[in-house]
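*Target chain*
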Amino acid sequence: MTRSRPASNLSTWTTKKDRTLYQRRSLISQKLLVKPPTVAMGTTGFQKNIEDLSRAIEQGHGAVYRRNFDSLSYEYVGRYIKEITGYDQHELTPELWDSLILGTEQKGELAGLELDEANRLVRSGQVDRWQADVQIRTRSGETRWVADMSTEVSNESGECFGCLGVLQDITERKRAEKELADLTAALRYRNDQMEADLAMAREVQFALVNGNAEQFPQSAKAGEARFRFHQRYLPAAMLADDFLDIIPISEREVGIFICDVMGHGVRAALLTTFLRGLIEELIPVAANPAILLGKMNHGLRSVFGRSGDFLFATACYMVC
């Protein structure tokens, strides 16, 4: 006798035979998930599995290999190894591969270690993976970079007897890395030069500010000066856009010039230097604020008026 399976109850089966068959299939699936079948070395199954893997790796310009430390041989090398080294997969031996190596850069946990120490750590099981960038000379004499990534293979006793890995051509990547490193170094050098120039310009600015007279007349004895000047100079950036100038005109007159230039940085600092130079040239008319400021404005426009940039400075000048 049979009965239909309700839509709301997926565990109800049409017949006892169907239910028994499902249970057997489920049990088989569980066994496969818990303990996948193993493929022994040298068998047809192993060869097919590693060849399938090798074909997939070749799409990323890599060659799969399996190296046996005991027999000092490769048990398998992917066909793409010829594209990397110029040697056929049947020609390549561990001894030949080692002879092609020009240099090795350890990566990952092995970074910075000597080759012998890196080998010891991996083969003793203290490090799980071997990672290195290897520079080689190919059969044609060309220099290439190859990424060597592998994991150790152990027997049933846990003893390491070989490794399974991938060799990948990374020559273009290393070339790009070198170009980037060279560019970074050049930019760092230029930046250091610029920082040094800015630091010197800052020292010059401070020297000019600190060079102002502290009293007037400068020749007056202690307690007899008509004016004493105190200033505190705190630029917002490395190079300032403001400045103060004390201009001795005569034994009875002194000029005080305060200026704020538009902007910050090198451009503003150059403008302040230009204005200071104008002041030095106009000392003969420093007793007349209107003439001095008028001539400064004319000089500023004659030099920077054709630049196409909008520049201005605000100044206050008085004679005491």
Observations:
- The chain has two domains: 44-174, 211-319.
